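Re-run requested by the PI after the first attempt was lost when the workstation crashed. Everything re-entered from the original request form. Ligand of interest: carboxymethyl coenzyme *A.
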Amino acid sequence: MNAKISFEGNEYEFPVVEGSEKEFGIDISKLRGTTGGLITLDRGFKNTGSCESAITFLNGEEGILRYRGYSIEELAEKGSFLEVAYLLIFGELPTKTELEKFHKDIKAESHVDEEMKKILDGFPKSAHPMGVVSSLTSALIAFNPSSVNVESEEDMYNAIVKLLAKFPVICSWALRKSKGHPLDYGDNSLGYVENVLKMMFKKPNEDYKIDPVIASALNKLLILHADHEQNCSTSTVRIVGSSHAGLFASISAGVSALWGPLHGGANQAVIDMLEGIKADGGDTKKYMAKAKDKEDPFRLMGFGHRVYKNFDPRAKIIKKSADEVLGNLGVEDPVLDIAKGLEKEALEDDYFVKRKLYPNVDFYSGIIYRALGIPTNMFTVMFALGRLPGWIAQWREMRLKKEPIGRPRQIYTGENLREMKDIDNR
Ligand code: CMC
């Protein structure tokens, strides 16, 4: 199968690559060479496939999301976060023995060098946890300096395990620092998700009892966030890693990319928005009008998606889970009603219908995080915790496939050659 491009009277043919779900892409890797300089221009990469990947399948028109062929609905219903992490990274669901070994290896690495505390001490208490997490992830390189030999399966495995072990410690430290709580290393007798909760919430003078409703809700949220193919932060991880920068450096860059309000930062922005609407009297119609007004920079946060032009399947699961979790915990949150009101109005509104804008993963997730006792400025950190296996899986796939360094081209639109005038004559 080929596709033809004609330019200045010449015709060129390029092979078309077919994916396992009948998706097609024109392979233009020889475009520049054969045409003598022609490139493609695709702002925001809306039509550009940067790689072939066997990890996550997403069909935005039909609202389908699958990790390694398993539907997100089934994984969220039956899976544990750690087995989903294993699935994403290594390609198959683990056996019982494989999962036990994986967890045991992670536990063996779940300490963070005491000297990392000095770096954390340098941050003000008011620092945003995402900035702290990104910096500390990068700082981990100094304490784990040997670079990963990607030719060695063992080396690769050890680096992955280290990161899965230490990242939650760092995330919980960011929270504890902001609350003024002493740092905690968790408890290796607990499950991965339960340990995350304990590291975050244990007070120095009290036991921390794991609430199964909270642990199960967090498990589900982490699974739902675990991968989403070539999104902004994942593409960042791949492109940084493509220069053969180390795994920790690549992930630290991914955390920074995730922070933005158009990406993972939207979960915090949604709650801030809903709180703002509540404080302003709860008039959802006023905010709907603002979202539609092109002169107004306000956007309905948690709505719209680059790829989903239908319901984000994660949002459907999360909305149901929000009702269950709040009900089980006996939490009443007035912003849940505001969110449901906004959703109803948007789904019936011409502006949103025409542009195929539906609630995304971030629309209801913040309401659950809040019910679990997680502060608003930690929401995006929770997203990062969930996305970590996806970033690792994508980085591993990219390195194993020996992908070339990522280096896009551009169309230059600046000045033509000119002479540098003496400073007195400018
Ligand atoms: N509120 C109002 N209008 C919107 C919204 C919104 N949330 N999202 C898109 N639009 C409009 C946009 O103004 C444009 O209108 P027009 O065609 O008249 O110019 C049209 O819909 C297409 O939007 P776009 O910005 O060109 O689409 P995009 O694919 O570049 O952006 C997006 C996708 C997610 C950045 C955008 O929908 C948005 O800003 N949403 C709010 C932020 C948000 O919730 N982000 C989380 C994404 S899901 C988590 C993750 O990153 O994985």
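Saved to the shared folder this time. The first strand starts at residue 2 and ends at 7.
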